[in-house]
Amino acid sequence: MKFTLFRKIFYSSAKIFHTRTLITTNGHFNRQKIDIGDSVQIERLFTQEDVALFARLTHDDNPIHLNESSAIQRNFAKPIVHGSLINGVISSLIGTKLPGYGSILIEQDLHFPNPLFVGEKFITKVTIADRKRNIYFCQYECLTMDGKKVTEGMAKILFRP
């Protein structure tokens, strides 16, 4: 199977786009052909039900994530998505798409310059910034559909295909 520049691939109700044409197996990059500059991105949206489930699983029931009046009291227009839930999308792309299976996160730098509101669509993009043997350095960012940056950072990945 080949993925062409920004060819839409539907996966778990999210749109995934690859930015290079690479021969893949089961929708994953061919590990022998990963180059600096390769990237993958996904479009997502978290519902209030998603956020509530995450809150239950992690026991992070901060009302700013779950209650509109609590969010408004703290000068947010509506409840905000947990940063760790957003980071889960980044982890998913790294662990399953680029570099893919065999990726182990060993270091991460993560920033949240703006909140992501529940129900707000966003795009997460992961790019291979550098490589030293079996260590990959990934740069990532999450942007809302109107271009607001909600997450950015770098990850150091040990890759054992």
UniProtKB/TrEMBL annotation:
An annotated GO BP = fatty acid biosynthetic process
Quote the InterPro entries the UniProt record gives.
HotDog_dom_sf, MaoC-like_dom, UPF0336/Enoyl-CoA_hydratase
- Molecular function terms, GO-annotated: (3R)-hydroxyacyl-[acyl-carrier-protein] dehydratase activity; 3-hydroxyacyl-CoA dehydratase activity
Q: Which Pfam families does this entry report, sorted A to Z?
A: MaoC_dehydratas
Residues covered by the MaoC-like domain: 43-132
Gene3D superfamilies documented for this protein: Hotdog Thioesterase
Q: Provide the Gene Ontology terms for cellular component.
A: mitochondrion
Task: From the Swiss-Prot or TrEMBL record, give the protein name.
Answer: Dual specificity protein phosphatase 3-like protein
